[in-house]
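Researcher: Let's try something more involved. This one mixes different molecule types, so please make sure each is placed in the same coordinate frame as the others.
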Amino acid sequence: MVNLEVNIGKTTFKNPVLTASGTFGNGSEFDDFFDVSRLGGILLKGTTLEPREGNPYPRMAETPSGMLNSVGLQNKGIDYFEKNIYPKVSLYKTNVIVNINGNYIEEYVELASRVNKLDNIAGIELNISCPNVKMGGMAFGTNAASAREVTKAVRAAYNKTLIVKLSPNVTSIVDFARIAEEEGADSISLINTLLGMAVDIRTLRPSLSTITGGLSGPAVKPIALRMVWQAAKAVRIPVIGIGGIMNSDDAIEFIAAGASAVQVGTASFIDPMASVRILEGIEEYLTTKGFNDIKDLIGYINRK
Amino acid sequence: MTKSVRNFQLIDNKSIKKDFYVLELSSGQPLPEILPGQFVQVRVDDSKETFLRRPFSVHDVDYTRNSLKLLIQIAGKGTSSLSEKKPGDLLSLVGPLGNSFSLPENDDRTLLVGGGCGVAPLLYLAKYLKSHKREFDILMGFRNRDRIIEHEEYRALSNVYLTTEDGSEGEIGFVTQHSLLRKEKYSRIYCCGPDAMMKAVGKFANENQIHCEVSLENLMGCGFGVCLCCIVKTVDGNVCSCTEGPVFNIKRLIW
Ligand SMILES: Cc1cc2nc3c(=O)[nH]c(=O)nc-3n(C[C@H](O)[C@H](O)[C@H](O)COP(=O)(O)OP(=O)(O)OC[C@H]3O[C@@H](n4cnc5c(N)ncnc54)[C@H](O)[C@@H]3O)c2cc1C
Ligand SMILES: Cc1cc2nc3c(=O)[nH]c(=O)nc-3n(C[C@H](O)[C@H](O)[C@H](O)COP(=O)(O)O)c2cc1C
Ligand code: FES
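Model: All components are placed in one shared frame. Result:
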């Protein structure tokens, strides 16, 4: 038996395969396909204080080996979450992490203190990297001073595992990784989507109602991998790798480059069972390669 | 109606008109119950161009053969590639997805309206209504005689009325101009077709207080309610057309 367990902050994950926020709904959408509790953890759709309608249709465009989205954090708000979603996700026998978003620091803080009271939520992923909202979101994650301020404020309001989700739309990912660590984050996850755009040449209009949107899928993988590698070398806290992970080979690349865990995103749209197949693939790889513990694979390429 | 990811084997691919193909796909195992109006998400191949799955309405189901049919109109890369599939080829399907058309009351006067590849879900709907002993008529609109799809199959199930935009067969004009709509008093309309057709039919239904359901074809990322890309504006706010639709009562839609 291979040991797949990893520790991130105050949380033990039975395996390193998690799902990326906004690509896994609230988990229940996958119940027909597989037992969600098999995963190391699930990250729920981005939540805000107030309900949000998101951006107008069209919000999606397919691009070579990827897709652009501009959903804009459509969700029913934290009240609805507490009443209707929390009781359901509490039944999963895996770590459930809430992805929080706000326009102002005060909103992030209030969300964090509300989630702090929910016993069955293992942690928060602080999203300061959504490219699809006018205020907040990426504005926090691409400015060093505000990234610092929001992380510090949320840390003070939340005592369980705090993961800061970084934006790739910055010049130096290492700076932001260090800021998160300095302000007390337990972990960083990266990458969120890359700002991109597409034009429909039949209608000669932008493909998205918002003109620009976030690129995800295999198209972003090499960039994500490079950033994860850089960040993992720069900080001591565990790094969670995200970006274009479609199969276990991709996941293994991220882990070998320094990720302690991975999140599966867009892949779940194409194969709803992608995350669990990736889990099986990692286990098989470790066995074949003679690793007894996933920890021996984490950052393998960085060792002499 | 449990959803699953499954490989289906193509058993027949028939070109029925220029740009229109009927694919019959069979699964090794029994099919779950599939309702009329539901759709499947088809993986085209591993090409970088057709990265996401493509949604198609279930055109027909044969539980005895564990098979289902899709009616596909060539619209771009994915549909062209599907049109070239050969018997024996495997296709991965996610489904059945979405809601379905409602079952009419026994005393309803029901009309099915379709146009272009929007006639796809109507065949299975017609068979379903027939098996539940409901009476209905079918009205179809096409650009011209050469674009008419499979109406013999529909004729076997009920009366079929046609319009073509150039009058080359049936009455001339759009479906909403057909004389049938002035003669008959329908209480229920099911419509699937181009947006303009559904809007015109919806308007007609509203003006005449007819219960009307339309099947929308929004762009889809996942097809099962997680990406929130397929939204449609309704009186209840933005909702996913892949889970709360694709079939909507027009009263709910803000067009
Ligand atoms: C619930 C649902 C049921 C459908 N049922 C059928 C069916 O039974 N038969 C059938 O032939 N088609 C159906 N469609 C439409 C079909 O999914 C698209 O034609 C197909 O995805 C186009 O793929 P492509 O790679 O060939 O085109 P692309 O190369 O991706 O695009 C070519 C053109 O098709 C348009 N297009 C792409 N996706 C869609 C879409 N989802 N709806 C409408 N236009 C689109 C694009 O805007 C573009 O103009 C359905 C769509 C939905 C959402
Ligand atoms: C449709 C869609 C919605 C997303 N919504 C969120 C969100 O609410 N919060 C968030 O932090 N990231 C969100 N993301 C970003 C993903 O979590 C992930 O960081 C990104 O897609 C890269 O991973 P991938 O290439 O595996 O998809 C979303 C991505 C997509 C495609
Ligand atoms: S297509 Fe993804 S939510 Fe409807």
